[in-house]
Amino acid sequence: MKKHLHFRRILVGLVVLATFGATTAAYATHRWGNYHWARTANPFTLKLGDNLTSTWDSYLVTTSNDWSQSSVLDTTIVAGGSRTARRCNPTTGRVEVCNYRYGYNGWLGVAQIWINGDHITQGAVKLNDTYFNTATYNTPAWRNLVMCQEVGHTFGLGHQDENFYNLPLGTCMDYSNDPTPNQHPNQHDYDLLEEIYAHLDLTTTVNQSAPLRGAFLDLDNPAEWGQELRTSIEDRTSIYLRDLGHGEKVLTHVFWVQ
Questions:
Q1: Which of 5, 10, 114, 179 is the most exposed place for a label (fewest CB within 10 A)?
Q2: What is the full DSSP assignment across 154-180?
Q3: pLDDT by residue (tens digit) across 232-247?
């Protein structure tokens, strides 16, 4: 795990509690398998728990407004339900959003999604102020991009592009060395959400209360991510898998920046 702790690397992570399936970051199908929130009607409303300090509140508002432009889902900001921002404990049926000085552990942001089969049942987003308090990342562009991307992951979206040297696609679901053009979703993100949520389910996982295994794992620790499944050619993105048993697994998507 040596490279995970290298101080010159940052990650924006997707941590998914899931039954692992094939994934792709291609522009045409930037989704994670069939992972989605179960619901019986569209549009559905997903709660975002605000466990943030005042520095981050406006960015969560922007992200919530942006993703609510989708025709299939709305988001609403509610009081946070996490016991501490450091652990950012999830709440079943919604997404908790937290910030904290998590330390020089190599990651800038983490998104966690709990999955039962293909259905997302709870989520958490963590933003690492250890790096956001530095001159490099303490900018509105970086804060908007990371907030928007991590919340987008909790809907089942992956990345449109993982090549830092391609021209920016104008979406927060794109990796780029310049965050300025990539602070908000684009039409392709909304189109894919319509595809992901085109069918309806017989049950719902939104606003439910049944807890899942692994809810209190210390998943900001790279040593807890499990086996590395793949890494990009540039070694700047990686995927890890941890099996929790009973059909539940932790899938971690990591974005490393040199």
A1: 5
A2: TTTB--SB--TTSPP-SSTTB--S--T
A3: 656 666 777 777 778 7
Q: Which residues of the chain have pLDDT under 50?
A: 1-10, 18-28
The encoded tokens of residue 53 equal 């300090």
Question: How many angstroms separate the CA atoms of 122 and 139, rounded?
Answer: 29
Phi-psi region of 194 (alpha: psi -120 to 50; beta: other; left: phi over 0): alpha
Q: What is the DSSP letter of 29?
A: T
Instruction: Output the domain CATH number for residue 30.
Output: 3.40.390.10
Number of domains in the chain: 1
- Please count the helices (runs of H) and the strands (runs of E) in the chain: 4, 10
Domain carrying residue 203: 2-255
Among left, alpha and beta (phi > 0; psi -120 to 50; other), residue 256 is: beta
Closest CA to 157 of 46, 76, 249: 46
Residue 67 and residue 189: Cα distance in Å, rounded?
Answer: 9
Is 117 strand, coil or helix?
Answer: coil
CA angle 76, 78, 82 (to 5 degrees): 130
Mapping DSSP to helix (H, G, I), strand (E, B) and coil, where does residue 248 land? strand
Tokens of 14: 């997707």
